[in-house]
Amino acid sequence: MRIVVLVGLPGSGKSTYVEKLGVPAISSDAVRGLLADDPTDQSIHARVFRVMRYLLRQRLEIGRPVTYVDATHLTPRERAPYLRLGHLYGCPVEAVYFDVPLEVCRERNRGRLRVVPEEALERMAHKMKPPTLKEGFSRITVIA
């Protein structure tokens, strides 16, 4: 079993990546949609990530070979719970880092149905810390 944590700004290509792979992902947007009927509802942020970790644990307990986790995961603190779960379940945790320039993300964002406010995208870009092996990832793939 392994966990693959997607890391990148909105519009960097995370969801498109898993769609092209043809694999299911535990997605923060999808969980927001399921819980609040609105994939953009940020008022339930903590609850969304609790549900995501619950779903990941269930997949690990039934032995699914790989689970993709699709959210921005901007900081080591936001990624740490997945590394702890990987350690707990004895499986490697990989990161796929979408190293896409802010301008490209802005342009893609403008063309989306669910547009992230420009000021929120700016804040996220300043908060972004690329994943490192020192965090505990077994492997990091960079997509530019």
Q: Gap between N and C termini, in Å?
A: 26 Å
* Net shape: globular
Look up the CATH topology: Rossmann fold
**Major beta-sheet overview:** 5 strands, parallel
Order of helices and strands: EHEHHEHEHHE
Could you outline the blueprint of secondary structure elements for this entry?
Layout: E1 2-7, H1 14-21, E2 25-27, H2 28-36, H3 45-61, E3 66-70, H4 76-89, E4 93-98, H5 102-110, H6 118-127, E5 139-143
Parallel strand pairs: 1-3, 1-4, 2-3, 4-5
Helix pairs in contact: 2-3, 3-4
Short structural description:
This protein has 144 residues and is an alpha/beta fold. Helices cover 47% and strands 17% of the residues. The chain contains 6 helices and 5 strands.
Keywords:
globular, Rossmann fold, 144 residues, alpha/beta
Description:
This protein has one domain (2-26, 66-143): Rossmann fold (3-Layer(aba) Sandwich), CATH 3.40.50.300. The longest helix has 17 residues, at 45-61. The chain has six helices and five strands; from the N terminus they run E-H-E-H-H-E-H-E-H-H-E. Strands 2-3-1-4-5 form a five-stranded parallel β-sheet, sandwiched between helices. It is globular, with a radius of gyration of 15 Å. The chain has 144 residues and is an alpha/beta fold.
